[in-house]
TrEMBL record:
GO cellular component labels: cell division site; cytoplasmic side of plasma membrane
Domain SHS2 stretches: 7-197
NCBIfam families: ftsA
Membrane topology, as annotated: Peripheral membrane protein
Region span, Disordered: 398-442
Top-rank taxon, per record: Bacteria
Subcellular location field: Cell membrane
Organism expressing this protein natively: Candidatus Ligilactobacillus excrementigallinarum
Biological process, per Gene Ontology: FtsZ-dependent cytokinesis
Known partners and oligomeric status: Self-interacts. Interacts with FtsZ.
InterPro entries listed in its UniProt record: ATPase_NBD (IPR043129), Cell_div_FtsA (IPR020823), FtsA/MreB (IPR050696), SHS2_FtsA (IPR003494)
Principal place of residence: membrane
Name of the protein in its database record: Cell division protein FtsA
Alphabetical keyword list: Cell cycle, Cell division, Cell membrane, Membrane
Length: 454
């Protein structure tokens, strides 16, 4: 499938809103424009003031447009892991009709079997964000990735459905639309990030991906190329900065500068001799502190975040996965964060850095990941997801719900020189049943991931 064109990613984060415009040509992604603005109107990953968010989106879009020398009119939006839920879905339809004869499977059949898989009761406060097929069955043949063009009497699909709160989804849509943009797609952020930041082997054999954001920290357990568990800690880099500000009695801005320029996530790695000047509120002269003292403040919060993740994911044996831990996000750039994570998780830890020119900071991993996810979507996955455009989900307390989203579509962008096709990209999990007896290491992994959705 030809995915060449211009793609736009919008990441609405708690501490910053980022936009990236990229051109995808011959399997190569080239960043041609980007913007980043301090977030207003968000708290803990959730929109709390639509007007402020709309204003920030417009500002960030303008930055990216000026660098890319084009005007964009649509984006793909990422949904954070807050209150996401993952559940299995399964549907089956007759392809050949009532006469029992076989027929060739088409896009319409894929749409129909997807609808059949999603015919289930949903709470009135939730919407379907995405559905990802695991495999199709044509008659008695299983493990089919794309059934179109095959002949059969019966078509079955098994997959994974991702749902989120209607309020969160409505607010995201409202902000993007009021910013003058169309929504091409809504992407589950941890899925896009995992496909970008993890290698093929890490996605296959399993790894833990931790996004160290400013407003919150998100951990995703990935295995067999699927996000199977997520955990969100409502603490992030801003909490570290606030700790520094309170302990040292300095402004939030000064605390952020101290953290970025002199801080270590592990105090034992910091200097005990090098002194740092600190502007203290109410004092005319700066106070001097050591890097070690500053880093002790940082380590206390970072250790608390990692310990919470260890407790949440340790209960499902996630740290026994061969891929270890991969860190990304803005706080992953903090010195000593790898060493602290390795001490706490007791597994190999590495940091993922984007390789695209000009954006090699971990803080851009999410928004670039959204673009990568869109460019590499298989055609069958796009057909399945586009089914959501026409589905009304029946819940126990209402007769119908609004359609979830529009499918990924290519649209036009305005360019002062040339015209291009554009696909724009912006920026769950039920806990498994615990075992009564502690299984062996190898069996623990196998049992958890084999039975996670049962």
């Amino acid at each position: 499938m030809e995915n060449s064109g211009i793609y736009v990613g919008l990441d609405i984060g708690t501490t910053s809103i980022k936009v990236v415009i990229a051109e995808y040509l011959k399997d190569q992604l080239n960043i041609i424009g980007y913007g980043s603005s301090h977030s207003q109107g968000l708290s803990r990953g959730v929109i709390v003031d639509i007007d402020q968010v709309v204003s920030t989106i417009k500002e960030t879009i303008k930055q990216a447009e000026q660098k890319a020398n084009i005007e964009i009119d649509s984006v793909t939006v990422g949904v954070p892991a807050n209150m996401l839920q993952i559940q299995r879905c399964k549907g089956m339809i007759a392809v050949g009709g009532q006469d029992g004869n076989s027929a060739e499977i088409t896009d319409d059949d894929v749409h129909e079997v997807t609808r059949a898989a999603l015919v289930q009761n949903l709470p009135p406060e939730r919407d379907v964000i995405d559905v990802v097929p695991d495999e199709f069955f044509v008659d008695d043949i299983d493990n089919i990735k794309d059934p179109r063009g095959m002949m059969g009497v019966r078509l079955e699909m098994q997959g994974v459905m991702y749902t989120g709160p209607k309020t969160i989804l409505h607010n995201i849509r409202k902000c993007v639309q009021r910013a003058g943009l169309k929504i091409n797609d809504i992407v589950v952020a941890p899925i896009a990030l995992s496909e970008y930041a993890l290698s093929d082997a890490e996605q296959d054999f399993g790894a833990v991906l931790i996004d160290l954001g400013g407003g919150q920290t998100t951990a995703a357990v990935v295995h067999d190329h699927k996000v199977k568990y997520t955990y969100v800690d409502q603490e992030g880099g801003d909490y570290v900065t606030r700790d520094i500000s309170i302990v040292l009695n300095t402004s939030f801005e000064n605390a952020e500068t101290l953290k970025r320029n002199y801080g270590f996530a592990m105090a034992s790695l910091a200097s005990t001799e090098d002194s740092i000047p600190v502007e203290v509120v109410g004092q005319q002269e700066d106070e001097m502190i050591t890097e070690e003292y500053l880093s002790e403040i940082i380590e206390a919060r970072m250790r608390q975040i990692f310990e919470k993740i260890k407790q949440a994911l340790g209960s499902i044996n996630a740290f026994q996965l061969p891929g270890g831990v991969v860190l990304t996000g803005g706080m992953a750039a903090l010195q000593g964060v790898t060493e602290l994570a390795q001490e706490i998780f007791e597994v190999p830890v590495k940091i993922f850095y984007p390789q695209e020119m000009n954006l090699r900071s971990p803080q851009f991993s999410q928004v670039i990941g959204l673009i990568e996810d869109t460019t590499k979507q298989s055609e069958i996955n796009m057909v399945v997801k586009s089914t959501l455009e026409n589905i009304d989900f029946v819940s126990q307390n209402q007769t119908s719900a609004n359609p979830s989203m529009k499918p990924v579509k290519k649209t036009n962008v305005k360019n002062t020189k040339t015209k291009s096709k554009v696909v724009n990209t912006t920026n769950k999990s039920d806990k498994p049943t615990k075992e009564k007896k502690k299984p062996k290491k190898s069996n623990a992994i196998k049992n958890f991931f084999n039975n996670f959705f049962d």
